Amino acid sequence: MTESDEERRLEGTGVTPAVGVGPVHWLAADLELPDPPDADAVDPSTERERVANARERALEAIEHEREATAERVGESEAEIFDAHAAFLTDPQLEDGIDEAIDDGLPAAHAVRAAFEDPIAQFEAMEGPMAERADDLRDVRDRLVRTLLGRESTGIPSGSVLLAERLTPSDTTGLDPDAVAGVATVTGGRTAHAAILARALGLPAVVGVGEELRELEAGTRVVVDGERGLVIVDPDPETRARAERERDLEPIAEPVETADGRPIEVAANVGGDDFAAAADRGADGIGLFRTEFLFLDREEPPTEDEQYEAYADALEAFPDGRVIVRTLDVGGDKPLPYREGAPERNPFLGARGIRVALGELSDLFETQLRAICRAAATEDGGDLAVMFPMIATVEELEEALARLEAAASEVAEEGVDRERPEVGVMIETPSAAFVADELAARVDFLSIGTNDLTQYVMAADRENERVADLQDPLHPAVLRAIDRTTSHGGDAWVGVCGELAGDPAVTELLIGLSVEELSMSPIAIPAVKRRVREIDSAEARALADRALEAETREDVRTLLDGE
Ligand code: PEP
Ligand code: MG
């Protein structure tokens, strides 16, 4: 395969658990305005009247979109348009436009000029306020378009829309059945446009960065709003998978193999999209990446904030297990408020349980208290705790002692004492080698194939140069999985790395005696379907052959049924 034949993956922030495929169509960037005429040729009173008329028409359009959004999406999302109406009639902005007209600019140029400073002021702010600049741009562009008589944007059906950024009205104007997906150069998860895309179920990835700009109209891309990827020139396998994930109806009930072996299919969740995971048919949450509650902020979340988040997850799955993984920072997930010199090899350094038991002990204790409190709520019986990056029995014993201490502390404060189910992630070769000893102390083991592959193969999961080694289908990784399942004693064993979400590998994992699979919600319908087709004895035979394979190519050939 030549370089140009290979698919390319651009990373951004996924905002919807949905996937789309289609050719690129660029949404017009900022509307081009011709150079303004000489000031003498501009009649201020005519221009002021034009602005007033355009404002009225824009207000009507906003009102119309507000109603349509309330109906299609919901009342709280529709409120975005109230803010737009308020911007449109803001006296300061009105004065700014009048002043620019008095300085000799025609209407559209005056609108541009008057919005410049307020947009820059919002942009200079920290956090979500910065994203309000998008709303101002939206109002500005609406006014300019109305003044130029160019209200419609004309997007070809089936295309993936790319834009510098999306405004809320760009987004609500999109028909989710006609647009395959959207991706933007800038923007974050909490921008109004992202919230709307999520509510409309539009596959969307925001904040992809400069590389997105290089994509030409017509280039075929996959927008994976769950994994936060724009895949350029997807290879046939990726496309087939994207199309499968796009079209499948979720299966709400738990599934079993064709010969009756129950397999739990759960969701990996990083933010607060528990409802989206439930909608995709997740039986529960197999991996709640709680570190996302701690990243991208200046202070750690309080115990109460965490308690609320865990309780919300439990509420979304009243009948399903919710596995809360404790703080897993370090490596590729630096904590902004963590002190200390940078490490030379952060993936081999103080990450996961190592920091939780050491320098971040206080945060860990607060988290364990919040978890114990959530376990005592009405839906809390299904809460489980899981420790990341365990390498030794001593670490596990220490973590269990801290959990016990937190449970006693909150019990003394009057909270019912519940012992949540406890599990360990198998992400290091050492954990796989001492799986028996770990399993004897916990209820379950969950194999994190992303890190396990990185450590078994000694290949940084972020380093493109060793991407070939980052394949969980290497026989060494499969044997590490087998080592874990065959030495798990009474503990049940699941997989929560990316591998779990690949339906082409489901049979092999079931054959390796995995009982639970936890994955990106988007993959759940396809995996549940696959589970139902599998016969456990055939799966075991496949696993036996895969364990004898010498290369990953041999494993892939086996999986292809050749
Ligand atoms: C893993 O390592 O496989 C895993 C699920 O954890 P994370 O990807 O969050 O490191
Ligand atoms: Mg991991």
3D architecture notes:
The protein is α/β, with parallel strands linked by helices and about 550 residues long. It is built from 22 helices and 17 strands. The strands form two sheets. An eight-stranded mixed beta sheet has the order 1-8-7-3-4-5-6-2. It has an eight-stranded parallel barrel with strand order 10-11-12-13-14-15-16-17, surrounded by four helices. β7 and β8 (about 230) form a beta hairpin. α1 (about 45-70) packs across α6 and α3 (about 80-90) crosses α6 (about 130-150). The longest helix is centred in the first third of the chain and has 29 residues, at about 45-70. The model has no long low-confidence stretch (mean pLDDT about 90). Magnesium ion binds next to α17.
What does the secondary structure layout of this molecule look like, with pairings?
Layout: E1 8-11, E2 13-14, E3 19-26, H1 44-72, H2 75-78, H3 80-88, H4 91-102, H5 107-123, H6 128-148, E4 160-163, H7 168-172, E5 181-184, H8 192-200, E6 204-206, E7 220-224, E8 229-232, H9 236-247, E9 255-256, E10 262-269, H10 274-279, E11 285-289, H11 303-316, E12 322-325, H12 353-357, H13 361-375, E13 383-387, H14 393-412, E14 421-426, H15 429-433, H16 435-439, E15 444-447, H17 449-456, H18 475-486, E16 492-495, H19 506-511, E17 516-519, H20 524-533, H21 536-548, H22 552-559
Parallel strand pairs: 3-4, 4-5, 5-6, 10-11, 10-17, 11-12, 12-13, 13-14, 14-15, 15-16, 16-17
Antiparallel strand pairs: 1-8, 2-6, 3-7, 7-8, 9-10
The protein binds phosphoenolpyruvate and magnesium ion.
Magnesium ion binds at residues 388, 427, 448, 450-451.
